[in-house]
Write a structure and sequence with these properties.
With 64 residues, the chain is mainly β. The chain has one domain (8-54). It is built from no helices and 5 strands. It has strands at residues 8-12, 15-26, 29-35, 40-52, 57-62. A 5-stranded mixed β-barrel has the order 1-2-3-4-5. A hairpin with a 4-residue loop joins strand 3 (29-35) and strand 4 (40-52). The chain starts with 7 loop residues before the first strand and ends with a strand.
């Protein structure tokens, strides 16, 4: 479990799409991810379906 800042691994379709994520925001069909060094990634046509602090994991699902 995280003591201070949690860094998450982000998965889509069972595959790791981004690592060391400290910020995630769902914009209704588009998810913005930002990691510890400030790099950003936008994942289109998906939504956040699970956030696990214990496993430091965020799971995305594709929108149909």
């Amino acid at each position: 479990m995280c003591e201070r800042m949690c860094e998450y691994r982000v998965f889509l379709d069972g595959e790791l799409v981004f690592d060391e994520v400290v910020y995630a925001r769902d914009y209704g069909g588009r998810v913005l991810l930002r990691n510890v060094v400030g790099e950003a990634k936008v994942v289109d046509r998906c939504k956040i379906v699970e956030v696990s602090v214990e496993e430091t994991r965020i799971v995305l699902a594709r929108l149909s």
